[in-house]
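G., the chain you wanted modeled:
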Amino acid sequence: MSTTDAAKQASQRTDAADEAEARRLDDEQRLAEAQEDRRRGGARPDWSPLPRRAGLKPNASPLFSLRTPIPARWRWTLAVASFAIPLLIWVTLNALGTIKPTFLPTPVAVFDALLKMIESGELFSDLWATTQRVLLGFGLAVAVSVPLGIVMGTFNAGLALFEPVIAMLRYLPASAFIPLLMIWLGLGEPSKVAVLFLGTVFFNTLMTADAVRGVPRSLIDVSYTLGARRGEVLRKVIVPHALPGMIDATRVNAAAAWNFVVVAEMINATAGLGLRIMRAQRFTQTDRIFALLIVIGLLGLVIDIALRLLRARVGKWAA
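Predicted structure as tokens:
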């Protein structure tokens, strides 16, 4: 036998011994983990070991990679596609005649209805009336929910005091309060504003509290170690750290406020987009309904973008 063959055999025996030793160590590790689970009284699932897989391809597209930034060109292309695809489906359904125009008007008919409302001036008056109600009702909800959420997220005593009742009240539909609000506040603007307030204040409170509770305890401990007092920790650590999360909560519940405004304007309203939608429904004017819905959606999109820009400005570190 040559020296080369002997070296190969020795290398193979070494590899076999290494594999046997690795299997023995794996068996011992599994046995130790099983004993630990039995000692703790838990039942660990009998999971099979993960198969060996090849690593990620270095040239994988960022479009299909997890949490990977994509180029600005692709971001804008996908943003345009998110509007273009539904519009294309809409046009296709009209062209095929699948749905009658009475139920699904054409985009041209919707645009004509929008122009008529703009020319008559009713769109702007209704838009201003609805926007005022949303700003006032949701503004009051934010003014109440943000301080209350900070208290609940910062102090366990505040959480124990307020969370049970708020957790119950958030399941009560705001529309169910309309008869009571009409009795208590009358048929004017206060009852409409109250519907928006009740529909958003409880959810915004709990979401704000969750954002505040997300502040790492280590930051608070370090602040105390460096000599900060309780008020300083609250103002300079907790609130700034939780501010991006609180803005995100406001973004979510601002959309809910626009949903509730249609319900609020059922209370003897004389102007408003919700009132105009209900009148159009009475006469089966679906083109006007679609036009008003598009206006509400575009205005909501503007508000959402403004809040996103505000979040990016005040919380650049919280990407």
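The two ends are 66 Å apart (CA to CA).

Shout if anything looks off.
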